Amino acid sequence: MEKYGLTDETIEILTGKAEKIMSYYDSYKLDAREWKNYGKHRVYVTVSGYHGDDLQKTYKLAWVDMDNEQKITWQY
Q1: Alpha-carbon gap, residue 74 to 51, rounded angstroms
Q2: pLDDT tens across the length of the chain (76 residues)
Q3: Contact 29, 45 (CB under 8 A)
Q4: Which superkingdom heads the taxonomic lineage of this protein's source (predicted)?
Q5: Domain boundaries, position 12
Q6: I want to staple 41 with a disulfide (CB 3.0 to 4.6 A). Which of 9, 17, 21, 66 is the partner?
Q7: Has residue 2 been placed in a domain?
């Protein structure tokens, strides 16, 4: 996952939540995308679950407000 300025602490929190949600799957992958618009800077994070190499499900995990001390708003 590209960091887009996320701190290690924030990534650790996101990863911990993803591990709990994705425990049913063989593996999971976090993905992020940066959004800057209307004077706001956010990073949106999704998590995808896999069985073997097959993608099973993708969830909107959270968005992180980069202007507000990386406050996490959970989507899942």
Answers
A1: 24
A2: 899 999 999 999 999 999 999 999 999 999 999 999 999 999 999 999 999 999 999 999 999 999 999 999 999 8
A3: no
A4: Bacteria
A5: 8-74
A6: 66
A7: no
The answer to whether residue 3 sits within a structural domain is no
Torsion angle (degrees, nearest 10) of CA 32, 12, 53, 49: -80
The Cα 45–Cα 76 span in angstroms is 11
Helix (H) or strand (E) holding 73, with range, is: strand 71-74
Cβ pair 30, 45 in contact under 8 A: yes
Number of domains in the chain: 1
Distance between CA 60 and CA 48 in Å, rounded? 9
